[in-house]
Design goal:
Elements: E1 2-13, H1 19-24, E2 26-36, H2 39-44, H3 53-66, H4 72-86, E3 90-99, E4 111-118
Antiparallel strand pairs: 1-2, 2-3, 3-4
Helix pairs in contact: 3-4
Catalytic activity: 7,8-dihydroneopterin = 6-hydroxymethyl-7,8-dihydropterin + glycolaldehyde
Keywords: Folate biosynthesis, Lyase
Domain Dihydroneopterin aldolase/epimerase: 4-117
Length: 120
């Protein structure tokens, strides 16, 4: 299956298990890989034959910036569901969400989760 990648998408949101995260917010970094059959688009050169990654970016942004979840696992699930609902050509999604500055005492680059979902 062919892939469309959106890497290092950065958004400000209010997700987390701690009250401070839900009040102060933080940056969330999202990497998204969509499995899509791109054969038709590779011949037609028509946007209608692919998935408009600008619109996918906006769908992710809306979930991260307009909603509030305790778990980033739930945020990721909501993003996947929105993508499946809005983009029928998407057959599978690999979605990674990272927090660079969670309230954890220690030294690290980031913490996060990754989901893989397939269209039912």
């Amino acid at each position: 299956m062919d892939k469309i990648h959106l890497n290092g998408c950065r958004f400000y949101g209010y997700h987390g298990a701690f009250k401070e995260e839900q009040t102060l917010g933080q940056i969330f970094v999202v990497d998204c890989t969509l499995s899509v059959d791109l054969q038709k688009a590779s011949h037609s050169d028509c946007l209608e034959d692919t998935v408009h990654y600008g619109l996918v970016f906006e769908a992710i942004k809306k979930q991260v910036e307009e909603n509030k979840y305790i778990l980033i696992e739930r945020l990721a699930g909501a993003i996947c569901q929105d993508i499946f609902d809005q983009f029928p050509l998407v057959q599978a999604i690999q979605l990674k969400i990272s927090k660079e500055n969670p309230p954890i005492n220690g030294h690290y680059d980031s913490v996060g989760i990754e989901l893989e979902r397939e269209r039912a």
